[in-house]
Structure formats: C-alpha cells, structure tokens
Design a protein that fits this description.
The chain is an all-beta fold and 117 residues long. 0% of the residues lie in helices and 51% in strands. It has no helices and 11 strands. The radius of gyration is 13 Å and the shape is globular. The termini are far apart.
C-alpha cells in the first residue's frame, strides 16, 4: 500500500504562485512514478503532471505547460508541484496519485487551490 498526503493549497490571487507537496509512505517511494491530478467543481478529474521514479522524465497537461513544474525528493519521500502564473481556471482540488500508471494505484485526500480574479 501507499499512503499519500497533499498539502500547500490555499487562496491566492491571479498571477500568484503556490507549491503543493505530496508526502508518501508505505512502499519504497523511489520505485514508482507519481502524478498530480485536479478536479474543479462540476468537472471530471483531469491529469496535470507526472514524474518518473528518478525525476528524470516529466510530462504536463497542455493547460499548465510552462507554468507548473513537478519535481521529487526521494530522500524526503515527497513530490512537489510548483505552480506559477496561476489563473482562476486553475481553481480545483489537487490530488496526488501513485504509483502512476499502475493497476493498483492510490490517491491522497486532496488539497484545495483557489485562485481569485
């Protein structure tokens, strides 16, 4: 099993920045990829970013490319999502997912990001 705890979400103004954290425990953290997803009110959960086990490969949704950066610190069992130039449409609950791409995968409880216009 993998336990995931997200943090860092808050209310921020348009153009502001936030850094989300996803702390993992359970299985060996450096063995698996991790993803970030988000769900806005009334919408389906959507992919935001993912990072491979070593941090050498990343991928982003087109809507966040160039503004968001995913990274990981395997020594701290933590994945980060640096979000810059935030827009009101980034408002959502952000979820951590791991192992990303696995048939047996886990989700955190989510952290709320609200971007005011």
């Amino acid at each position: 099993q993998v336990q995931l705890v997200e943090s860092g979400g808050e209310l921020v103004q348009t153009g502001g920045s936030l850094r989300l954290s996803c702390a993992a425990s359970g299985r060996t953290f450096s063995n698996y990829a991790v993803g970030w997803f988000r769900q806005a009110p009334g919408k389906e959960r959507e992919f935001v970013a993912r990072i491979n086990w070593s941090g050498s490969r990343t991928a982003y949704a087109d809507s966040v490319k160039g503004r968001f950066t995913i990274s990981r610190d395997n020594a701290k069992n933590t994945v980060y999502l640096q979000m810059n130039s935030l827009k009101p449409e980034d408002t959502a609950i952000y979820y951590c997912n791991a192992p990303y791409g696995s048939t047996e995968t886990y989700w955190g409880q989510g952290t709320q990001v609200t971007v005011s216009s």
